[in-house]
Structure formats: structure tokens, C-alpha cells
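During the reporting period the student researcher (J.K.) took over the structure-prediction task from the postdoctoral fellow and processed the backlog of single-chain submissions. One of the processed entries is reproduced below for the supervisory committee.
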Amino acid sequence: MTMDDRIEQTKALASDARMAVLDWLKEPRRHFGHQETGDPAKIGVCVTLITEKLGMSQPTVSRHLELLRRAGFVAVNRIGRWSFFSRDEAGLSDYRRWLHDNL
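J.K. obtained the following C-alpha cells:
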């Protein structure tokens, strides 16, 4: 990754809303166990439920999730017309290692 990529990753974490999403996705069953379309730990969490929990508009939440996805911190699983999000642990671990090695 380039330094520009790392800067974009760092910017992706500079939001209370995005940090909350990453925190909630650590334990998706705990925070989104009421999801009816499937086990949130297996298929991810529906964007609609994340939108409700954040209390923001769907376009705003979609933008937050897209920034996290582009940073490599979340993965999206598309089932039909629905999008389900989960943490990308490999991407998060890579960022942690880079941060540790470079600070």
C-alpha cells in the first residue's frame, strides 16, 4: 500500500459513526441479533439495521460504509438487492501492523 492509501485508511477511522460501526460489527449477534434475514455473524449485517442503529439517513450511512469498505476495514456481501456488512479482520490487522511498525 502507498502512503496515500494509509492516509485514507486513517481518515476512514476519523468518525465516531464509523468507529461505532466497527465496534458493533465485532459482535454482530449481540448488536444485531434481531436480524431476520440470516445470522449476522455469518452473512453480515444488513445496511438497514446499521442505518437504524446510527439514527442517520440511508445515504449518509452508505457513505460511511463505503469509506470503511474502500479502506479495507469492512467487507460487503450482496444477497439479491440487499447488502450485508462485516468486519474485514485481515484488513484491520494489516492496518494495525502498519501503524505499530511506523509510529
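The committee noted the following: The first strand starts at residue 45 and ends at 46.
J.K. will present the remaining backlog at the next meeting.
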